[in-house]
Amino acid sequence: MYIAMNRFKVKTGSEQAFEEVWKGRDSSLAEMKGFETFHLLRGPANEEEGYTLYASHTVWANHEDFVAWTRSEQFRAAHRNAGSNKPLYLGHPHFEGFSAVEGA
């Protein structure tokens, strides 16, 4: 199993707009080999720094299937307009990838 996460610092007051972008996106993840599940997660608000933490979270059968997704036409199509959403968050998304060591 491989878990891919992108963390976003969404500007305070932009949370609803950010969530709507994700809810309205064209996603073809379900047609990709090895894709298991997707979640958009809302984390804590950091009032001092002016953001709410979010994470996009996908689970894949293995790292190779995830890499195939990142090289696919479906990936390019899903991320084609991502730059237009940059005013909603602070900085760049932060990627983290994890391979399962143990699980039930």
Automatic annotation (TrEMBL):
The keyword NAD does not apply. Keywords: Monooxygenase, Oxidoreductase. GO terms for molecular function: monooxygenase activity. This is Antibiotic biosynthesis monooxygenase. Residues 2-98 form the ABM domain. Gene3D superfamilies: 3.30.70.100.
